[in-house]
Amino acid sequence: QVQLVESGGGLVQDGGSLRLSCAVSGTPVSLNAIDWYRQAPGKQRELVAVITVSGNTNYADSVKGRFTISRDDAKNTAYLQMNNLKPEDTATYYCHSIRSNNWGQGTQVTVSS
User: Fold this and answer.
1) If DSSP codes are grouped into helix, strand and coil, which group holds residue 96?
2) How confident is the model at residue 14 (pLDDT cuts 50, 70, 90)?
3) What is the DSSP secondary-structure string of 26-51?
């Protein structure tokens, strides 16, 4: 059974940084494209970043140059490094395995101005 568990969210000031982790079990992260989504209250869930099986990455325009998606195959974990955070980044962040269509439970990120 594939499971994804996010961690690393929290409260940070405008301009701060956080690193989110997505621990994957039941399947090798190296064989799965992983993406990160976020959902703010009253808004639709939006795609933030994706890392393919081959390690290629892609980002939403709103986070390009500030966020970095990566993975550690030995730890079977994907990451989302978020720098220069802005209040508009406030949302619940979810990781998702594209191959198995499994979602984590989400982790809350709040950026104060």
Assistant:
1) strand
2) very high
3) SS-GGGS-EEEEEE-TTS--EEEEEE
Enumerate long-range contacts of 70-73, CB under 8 Å, 24 or more apart: 71/29, 71/30, 71/34, 72/29, 73/28, 73/29, 73/30
pLDDT at residue 61 in the model: 98
DSSP assigned state of 89: G
Could you tell me if 12 and 112 are in contact, meaning their C-beta atoms sit under 8 angstroms apart? Answer: yes
Q: 58-78 burial by CB neighbour count: b if 16+ within 10 A, else e?
A: ebeeebeeebbbebeeeebbb
For residue 92 the two structure tokens come to 């619940």
